[in-house]
Write a structure and sequence with these properties.
The chain has helices at about 105-110, 260-270, and strands at about 1-5, 10, 15-20, 35-45, 55-60, 60-70, 75, 80-85, 90-95, 100-105, 115-125, 135-140, 145, 155-160, 165, 175-180, 185-190, 195-205, 205-210, 210-215, 215-220, 225-230, 235-240, 250, 255, 295. The protein is built from two helices and 26 strands. The protein has one domain (about 1-240): Sandwich (Jelly Rolls). A hairpin with a 2-residue loop joins β24 and β25 (about 255). Strands 1, 13, 14, 15, 16, 18, 21 and 23 form an eight-stranded antiparallel beta sheet that branches. A seven-stranded antiparallel beta sheet has the order 2-3-4-11-6-9-12. A four-stranded antiparallel beta sheet has the order 5-10-7-8. With about 300 residues, the chain is mainly beta. The two termini are about 20 Å apart. Pfam families: Pirin, Pirin_C. GO terms for molecular function: metal ion binding.
Amino acid sequence: MIDLVIDQRRKDLGGFEVGRVLPFAKRRMIGPFVFFDHMGPAEFQAGFPRSVDVRPHPHIGISTVTYLFEGEITHRDSVGATQPIRPGEVNWMTAGSGITHSERFETLRSGGGTMHGIQAWVALPAELEETDPAFAHHGPNDLPTYESPDGKLWARLVAGKGWGAEAAVKTHSPMVYCHWRLKAGGRADLPAEYPERAAYVAQGIVEVDGREFHAGQMLVFAPGDTVVFTAVTDAIVMLLGGEPVGPRFIEWNFVSSSKDRIEQAKADWRAGRMKLPDADHDEWIPLPEAAPPPNPMS
């Protein structure tokens, strides 16, 4: 039932840490999910420096999916979108042929507070990798929710299809992305709806197949069986999966089925040929000169 357990690796982003889960050496992708970062939880005091913000940087070939449990982030991008994201909302940015964006902690800088959420990258199918860049924001009314009769499971479908429901978020390949809140003793099922599935424990402890798993662990499941979860403590779990989209190369912020396309994107970024968000022209992030060559991802 459980093929692999992936422990998050802590990464310092220059002001706060994230727990990086995907990509992982033994399992590069889960369905179309090519990247998975657990942001925080981190406590910020009012007045922290702007150096903590994520300055403008580029992407190709993916959609970025930002979802928060606590806090607020202001998104700005090169297609002209400026959008705060708050808990229970989804920012879905399709990079396609190329986009740049920044992520600012303006509200937290003003009043302080907790930052806690997930950012994932979803690889576009090869035939859509060069689609026009776009941005969409979705509030809770677009995201179906469910509560069990005993009150011990609350669920929100963040994107895709699952459990007979569908979120009003435009996706580009068959996938599921779901947020569970479980109270101690609560039970929930992950059906065998997709060939690739995983669950990330963002908070608390859950039991699966007679074993306990804690916050910061991703469980990757074999296809074909329904997976039953029991909450040992109150817990937050993110479910993800879908149909595979084929091998990918990744270098820095660029993802593509073509190594040559990544080299082109690197050259475009170094030469200043990728448009920046209108308010961000003085703070773009340079491509690391020591970046490793693209690695194949499967």
